[in-house]
Write a structure and sequence with these properties.
Elements: E1 7-11, H1 18-30, E2 34-39, E3 45-47, E4 53-55, E5 58-59, E6 70-73, H2 78-82, H3 86-97, E7 101-105, H4 109-113, E8 122-123, H5 130-135, E9 139-140, E10 145-148, E11 151-154, H6 160-171
């Protein structure tokens, strides 16, 4: 198992992008990691953009970023809801302060924009949030997967293979 014993948080909220939650969830579970779905409320059901349900494991206010080796922030419209919840922002800030792997795909970069994690880092995202990323201090580039220290970013679901490979490599 590639990442046996590693603990990874995947952020969750309504209108999440299906592939950006489930692909990493199953890939990292298969590789031996403990994957925890973190949302505003534990045990709540969150629907994807297409209505696919996902039940959270833990509330952001009940976990600490330093308890994990990595956090995955998926896109869809979920990050717009995540950033409205102070406990979700506080959790991502804890992850940034703990210097764990911060991995955001698509609109997931919006959550990194709520912290200082992008300042001085090369990063990418879905084109629609390019200027948000730049205004948060990132050197934004249009690439499949960008790794800068503990920050790993990708643009769209098409980038998931490279994104997940980069996360696994960073964890080993």
């Amino acid at each position: 198992m590639e990442i046996q014993g590693k603990k990874i948080a995947i952020m969750l909220d309504q209108a999440y992008q299906e592939m950006e939650v489930w692909y990493p969830y199953y890939r990292f579970t298969e590789a031996g990691a403990e994957v925890v779905l973190v949302a505003s409320q534990a045990g709540a059901t969150y629907l994807s953009k297409l209505g696919y349900p996902c039940v959270s494991d833990a509330a952001a206010g009940d976990v600490n970023g330093s308890d994990f080796e990595a956090v995955i922030i998926p896109g869809g419209w979920a990050p717009d809801f995540m950033r409205r919840d102070e406990s979700m922002i506080r959790f991502i800030q804890q992850c940034a302060e703990a210097k764990i792997i911060l991995a955001a795909i698509c609109h997931g970069g919006w959550m990194l924009c709520c912290t200082d994690a992008l300042r001085g880092k090369r990063a990418t995202s879905f084109i629609a949030i390019k200027h948000d990323m730049i205004n948060a201090g990132a050197d934004w580039v249009d690439e499949e997967c960008v790794i800068d220290g503990n920050v790993i970013t990708s643009r769209t679901p098409d980038d998931l293979p490279a994104f997940c490979k980069a996360i696994i490599k960073a964890l080993t």
